[in-house]
Amino acid sequence: MTPTFEDASHLTAGTSLVGKVFCDFDQLVEAFGQPHASAAAGDALDRVTVEWAIRTREGILTICDRSEWAGDGDTTITHRPIDWDLGGNAREHTDKAIHPVVALVHELTGCRVWDARPWCFRPAA
Q: Under DSSP, is residue 100 helix (H, G, I), strand (E, B) or coil?
């Protein structure tokens, strides 16, 4: 059963890239429900075709396909596995080896994730 997450599209200011996940669209829908915004549905999006913006127990999480955006006006959602961008507040959890929202995505999808925070927001080696 898909957990229910609160739409947090109004709370995304201050979020930035904190990680990546390699999976397909359907795996994300299974874990997080339908995206909160879609270019195909006419939503105004900047350089993405779909986006989730949700409040989780670990903070605000955004998921989008920015790395796949071609800029050609095509709003088709890809269903093949791709690297999805994971957003969160990079300034939070700087003591953690992997940002908690990235770990949560792995927990709920079982997909490969990796931390993409700038080095200044990661724990000292």
A: helix
Question: In DSSP terms, which residues pair with 60 in a beta bridge?
Answer: 55
pLDDT digits (tens, 9 = 90+) for 50-78: 889 888 888 889 998 876 766 666 667 77
Q: Quick one: which of 22, 74, 20 has its CA closest to 50? A: 74
pTM of the model: 0.84
Question: Dmax of the chain from CA atoms?
Answer: 45
Side chain identity at residue 81, one-letter code = P
Please state, as a whole number, how many other Cβ atoms lie within 10 Å of the Cβ of residue 97.
9
